[in-house]
Write a structure and sequence with these properties.
about 475 residues, mainly beta, Porin, 5 helices, about 45% strand
Length: about 475
């Protein structure tokens, strides 16, 4: 099934090319302001650089007009202080503004906020983005703990015209295997993966792998249509909304969501092949990928497989909105449950709003995991984040999820499902200077909700707090 899914996508790409995808006409796109802007056709110098500091977001890309998806034209930037709207940048997967693209091949609203450094070197468009949080984490109650750690990631992307289309490279790395450690950081109600290969991580969030993404892309565009291929080792299949550290509504929170393994836990997958087609604001894609989640050895690259498959339909009907629904079969995703497969279904909506001195993005998502064999469980998440005057950041997340991994096998409640929830809200003050990384300090508070029959394990009124400092490029 997995190979058949991707084969259909590859055949669709071939059919698209056969219909005559030559050099397309320039496509109209959107940026942070709804008023479209005429493209500047001034040739770019061999090597230019431009920096953006508009808060942390998916990866360092600027809103732009794409010249038929080829992405090798850029507005001249000879004078210092040019506004980032003057830049010409092409998206990786189609003839639309690059702000639409988030993690893997996922979409977000065209009005999504981005930051980073952008360079042109000959035919190559280069982009770099990075962020790191230094966190003091205090999780209260009998099952709580405290820890100082750093969550972080660095991302680089490159794109150039090649033949009738455009070729791209994507790389994302994290030092979390060293700055967090195998046992992860304390996070009440979090479950998933293992630290030693034999026991579950409970009430802790695992670190990301050193290699989060190493992927290549190729796309061909005609008018407002395109077809693309994406291959990664590791990479992200077409399943779920953008990963939480790549969406503006979620990246400001220094903790992972407890709904992670229902929505976007496949964002690091060792072996991914995706084929997709775009028509205006509509995208259909299919992936073959390795269903097993990363193991406890976070510094290596695991053997690739294509034993799982997924499909995703995305719709951006307007610059402020992005919708997706997806379905996947994950072969043996959990290392400690190798005999169980999982059917995952997700749906999400994202919204972005821009005004003078402010930016606001929100995400509402639902995910269902159906174990084969085994029961089905659901998860719901709502996030929102507001940035005011590039200085004040307010953010919140509400979650409700059905979990059956909250107790070890030695506990009589092991394997029983419980509806649990949490609400987190915080504030970060940024110290922004043009041409320099943005630095900020913040606080996040969390309240925990659970049924009465497990409160003895967590304590009455369980709560948590995180104090953190953030640096973002």
């Amino acid at each position: 099934m997995a190979f058949q899914s991707v084969a259909r996508g590859v055949l669709a790409l071939a059919a698209f090319v056969a219909l005559g995808a030559g050099r397309p006409a320039m496509a109209q796109t959107h940026h942070h302001h709804p008023m479209p802007m005429a493209a500047d056709t001034t040739a770019a110098p061999d090597s230019t650089a431009h920096e953006h500091h508009h808060g942390a977001a998916a990866h360092g890309v600027a809103p732009a007009h794409d010249r038929g998806g080829m992405g090798h034209d850029m507005a001249a930037m000879g004078n210092e202080g040019h506004d980032h709207h003057e830049m010409e940048m092409g998206a990786f997967y189609g003839p639309y503004t690059m702000t639409r693209e988030a993690s893997g091949t996922a979409w977000q609203p065209d009005l999504a906020r981005h930051g980073g450094i952008h360079l042109m070197k000959g035919p190559w468009m280069l982009m770099f983005h990075g962020a790191a949080d230094l966190v003091y984490d205090r999780q209260g109650g009998p099952r709580g703990d405290d820890k100082i750690f750093s969550s972080n990631m660095a991302m680089g992307m490159a794109r150039r015209p090649l033949g009738p289309g455009a070729f791209g490279l994507r790389a994302m790395l994290s030092a979390e295997p060293a700055t967090i450690g195998k046992k992860g950081y304390p996070l009440l109600l979090q479950t998933g993966e293992t630290a030693d290969g034999s026991t579950r991580l409970i009430d802790r969030q695992h670190p990301h792998d050193l290699f989060m993404e190493l992927a290549g892309t190729y796309s061909i565009s005609k008018g407002n249509r395109s077809a693309f291929l994406y291959a990664g080792l590791p990479g992200e299949p077409a399943l779920g909304p953008p990963a939480f550290m790549h969406r503006f509504s979620g990246v400001a929170l220094p903790e992972a969501p407890i709904t992670h393994h229902w929505l976007d836990s496949s964002h690091i997958t060792f072996g991914v092949l995706t084929a997709g087609m775009v028509a205006g604001g509509l995208k259909l894609e299919a992936s073959a990928f390795r269903g097993r989640e990363p193991d406890q050895n976070r510094f290596d690259i695991e053997s690739p497989k294509l034993d799982s498959h997924s499909f995703r339909l995305s719709l951006n009907p307007a610059p402020a909105w992005s919708f997706q629904v997806s379905r996947g079969r994950l072969n043996s995703p959990e290392q400690l449950e190798p005999e169980i497969d999982t059917d995952r279904t997700t749906a999400s909506v994202m919204h972005a709003r821009d005004w003078a001195g402010g930016h606001w993005e929100s995400t509402l998502a639902w995910g269902r995991n159906h174990k084969r064999p085994g029961p089905a469980s659901d998860a719901f998440a709502a996030e929102t984040a507001i940035e005011l005057r590039q200085k004040h950041n307010l953010f919140a997340r509400l979650e409700r999820v059905e979990k059956d991994e909250l107790f070890p096998e030695s506990d009589p409640r092991a394997g029983q499902s419980y509806w649990v929830g949490k609400g987190s809200a915080g504030y970060r003050l940024d110290f922004h200077r043009p041409g320099e990384p943005t630095l900020g300090i913040g606080i996040l508070g969390t309240l925990i909700g659970m049924p009465r029959d497990i409160r003895d394990a967590y304590g009455e009124g369980a709560a948590a707090v995180m104090l953190f400092a953030r640096a973002a490029l």
